[in-house]
Amino acid sequence: MNIGYMLKEGIKSVWINKVFSIASIATMMASIFLFGVFYAILVNFQSVVQDVESGVAITVFFDEGATQDQMDEVGQKIATRPEVLKFNFVSADEAWEDYKLEYFEGDEDAAAAFGSENPLANEASYEIYMEDISQQQDLVDYLEGQEYVRRVRQSETVANTLSDANTLIGVVSIAVLIILICVAIFLISNTVRTGIAVRKEEIGIMKMIGATDVFVRSPFIVEGIFIGAVGAVVPLIILYFLYGRVITYVAEQFGFLNSMMTFVSARSVFTILIPISLILGIGIGYLGSRVTVRRHINV
């Protein structure tokens, strides 16, 4: 097969049907642009959720009279759990010091009323932070079944809320992506179908002199891939420069957000967004043109 001919005829077909080609490229650009915007928002939202998740702790309290060795034994079991991100041990003395700082606000006279006795002598604990908050209940059930464990305190409402938010994000992402893909495939199919109609007589002659189906179909496949590639590259360039400016503007104009969240860097976003968008653009172009060619090339 002559690759040069295939590429030349594919680009030529784009030019011949420039009105439809421009419409398809514009639609692909809009689809990829919207996908990129949605993806950037999604990544930053997930970053916020993960930050919140990493701050939600499960607290494990021990039986009265439990020894340090027994508490260390529980800690070793916690360390083997795959869902655990990190954990730390809080001794009874540390718990009392934290309590005084939080509730007495440094008032030594109020704390002195307890004398040398530690009212939290039996409140040594492990604070556990998780990779995925949706697995919290499984870990809680496991810990409650361990020897020497008196009580496990969890943030069930927060965990359920974060899990529901992650589920909603996933569902919305898939729905938006499917809609964008369907719209793009539809327009590319129309463009390729128009190209086939315009060159119907030429295609008929080519087949009469022995041209294979692959040879005849290839330029139209190239046309679809070209439309998909251009429709993906242009919005990626726009998004790259736009994203950096937007996060800089938001950081300058809405400084209070800096204490609430950290924007994901452009490099982190586009390291994933670029290959995904190119695969989507080229893949949609290929799929839309191939399906149309198979249906309409029988001349």
Can you put this structure into words, describing what you see?
- Helix 1 (3-16) crosses helix 9, helix 2 (18-54) runs antiparallel to helix 7 and helix 7 crosses helix 9 (213-253).
- The chain has 10 helices and 4 strands.
- The mean pLDDT is 76.
- It has helices at 3-16, 18-54, 68-79, 92-104, 108-112, 136-144, 156-198, 200-208, 213-253, 266-296, and strands spanning 57-62, 84-90, 125-130, 149-153.
- It has 299 residues and is α+β, with helices and mostly antiparallel strands.
- The protein has a 4-stranded antiparallel sheet with strand order 2-3-1-4.
- The radius of gyration is 31 Å and the shape is elongated.
- 72% of the residues lie in helices and 8% in strands.
* Through-space gap between termini: 21 Å
Question: What is the chain-wise order of helices and strands?
Answer: HHEHEHHEHEHHHH
Specify the number of helices. Answer: 10
Helix content: over 70%
Number of strands: 4
Output the radius of gyration. 31 Å
> What is the mean predicted local confidence, pLDDT?
76
State the major sheet.
Answer: 4 strands, antiparallel
Strand order of the largest sheet: 2-3-1-4
The backbone outline, from C-alpha atoms, is elongated
Question: What multimeric state do the chains show?
Answer: single chain
Low-pLDDT runs: none
Structural class: alpha+beta
Tell me the fraction of residues in β-strands, as a range: 5-15%
